[in-house]
Amino acid sequence: MPMSYYLILSAAMFAIGVLGVILRRNPLVVFMSLELMFNAANLVFVAFSAYHQILDGDLFVFFVMTTAAAEVAVGLALMVAIFRAKHTIDLDEMSMLKG
Amino acid sequence: MDIGVLLVYGILGLTVIVSAIGLIVSRNALYSALFLVVNFIAVGLLYLALGAPFIAFAQVTVYAGSIMVLFIFVIMLLGAENLPLTEPLRGQRALGILLVLIFLAEIVLYYLLRTTPLQAIPIIPQTFASPAEIGMILFNRYLLPFEVTAFILLAATVGAILLSKHEGPTRPKPGIQKPETPVEG
User: pTM (2 decimals)?
Assistant: First the structure.
């Protein structure tokens, strides 16, 4: 398969992820869109790793995965804590610091 | 190129794009999570096609398995499936779509302005990204990042426990007598 197939697919996935982060107000969906963007970057890593026949790209995907897992654990715990304090997780309601 | 190969890659690409769009447009957060599982599995198949079986199976077990279980657990715990889709700021949606289109145009422009054109992906040897090879490079050249990752995961675990630890009036301290204690809640 040509390299451009993977690049186009990854660019589309990343753009859809950005759109989800910008447009949605449910923080859970925003988190999922972030995971989508991680995934788009991972796809390019693996594709270029196969293209150049160098294994380092695959290792970066491994590290990105573990970091994403850590990020999701902390983020979801934060969300549970915010829900306990404010009884909503609507992103627009989190404006306590607004002047 | 063979028509069957084209068909397989076309269906895979379509699955990735359609599930990604379904993720951001579906009203219910639970449906979004299930769309994301479909997306992860399709991308995992693409990893398999790119000759990276270890990454593909790590993707399916870590992402489509554990991370999505965490997501669905929190969605059901909070009961926050349905939030209104109304736009709070006027023109936010149009502006967001415009910005994303500019971003896409930027990527395409960068791709078109490359000095060296991209060739097709060469034939990947059988043992290229096998688990044995990954393990050799992971525990030799990337040993320090591997250990740092362990600390990141430990910090995330401790942080998650601290953040979600319940501190409230539900558990009365010993010595303080309340006239009547609620049975539940």
Answer: 0.84
